[in-house]
Design a protein that fits this description.
The structure holds 2 protein chains of 2 kinds.
Chain A (H helix, E strand, L loop, with lengths): L3 E4 L2 E4 L5 E7 L5 E7 L5 E8 L2 E5 L6 E7 L2 E6 L8 E8 L11 E2 L3 E5 L1
Parallel strand pairs in A: 2-11
Antiparallel strand pairs in A: 1-3, 3-8, 4-5, 4-9, 5-6, 7-8, 9-10, 9-11
Chain B lengths: L3 E4 L2 E5 L4 E7 L6 E7 L5 E8 L4 E4 L2 E6 L4 E6 L8 E9 L2 E4 L3 E6 L1
Parallel strand pairs in B: 2-11
Antiparallel strand pairs in B: 1-3, 3-8, 4-5, 4-9, 6-7, 7-8, 9-10, 9-11
The chains are: A mainly beta, B mainly beta.
């Protein structure tokens, strides 16, 4: 019973291609995130959606476009892939601040993207 | 902007030792702080979550403390085991998002 699932787990593609990574959570959380982990293992937020509404959009190239068809799904589409896009991309979800309690993050297992 | 620092960056200890990992943050206006474990090539597993109103949380051999006013948290691991070898990350929630530290890479030697 995977709580936050990402597909694919590995993605190897050529420069210039367009690719998508899918994320689904079955926890009933209302907020989902995309994080990028670089070669130095630093995690940086890219996007956050709350109930299908974009609430965080950090400075990332506009080649990256998130899409949230419903609150259980947050997909990441990347156009014109570049070598520097190679990284591990993590999806996460959380339940938004409610009654003074925040329940923290649940992460997916990551998608290792390699651009050649 | 919130900045999160973890010290040390790497730690190697013999099996059975007790150890402390440190996390510091610059903005004390946090909602909560979460400790994660990441195994090589794997995702992040949540270990402990401390709400801003709490001082500590315990789970098995793990104990996490939070001192909001000084901007510090510690993760105490008792009686370390080789299976504890991993990278440990702390994250603090400020505003709408979590800010991550750079992690401490722990190796427990049998």
């Amino acid at each position: 019973d995977t709580a936050v699932s990402q597909t694919p787990k590995y993605l190897v593609t050529q420069m210039g291609n367009d690719k998508s990574i899918k994320c689904e959570q079955n926890l009933g959380h209302d907020t989902m995130y995309w994080y990028k982990q670089d070669s130095k293992k630093f995690l940086k937020i890219m996007f956050s959606y709350n109930n299908k509404e974009l609430i965080i959009n950090e400075t990332v190239p506009n080649r990256f476009s998130p899409k949230s068809p419903d609150k259980a799904h947050l997909n990441l589409h990347i156009n014109s892939l570049e070598l520097g896009d190679s990284a591990v991309y993590f999806c996460a979800s959380s339940q938004s601040f409610r009654t003074g309690v925040d329940y923290g993050y649940t992460f997916g297992s990551g998608t290792r993207l390699t651009v050649v | 902007k919130q900045e999160v620092t973890q010290i040390p960056a790497a730690l190697s200890v013999p099996e059975g030792e007790n150890l402390v990992l440190n996390c510091s943050f610059t903005d004390s206006a946090i909602y909560n702080l979460q400790w994660f474990r990441q195994d090589p090539g794997k995702g992040l597993t949540s270990l402990l979550l401390i709400q801003s109103s709490q001082r500590e949380q315990t789970s098995g051999r793990l104990n996490a403390s939070l001192d909001k006013s000084s901007g510090r948290s510690t993760l105490y691991i008792a009686a370390s085991q080789p299976g504890d070898s991993a990278t440990y990350l702390c994250a603090v929630k400020t505003g709408n998002q979590f800010y991550f530290g750079t992690g401490t890479s722990l190796t427990v030697i049998p």
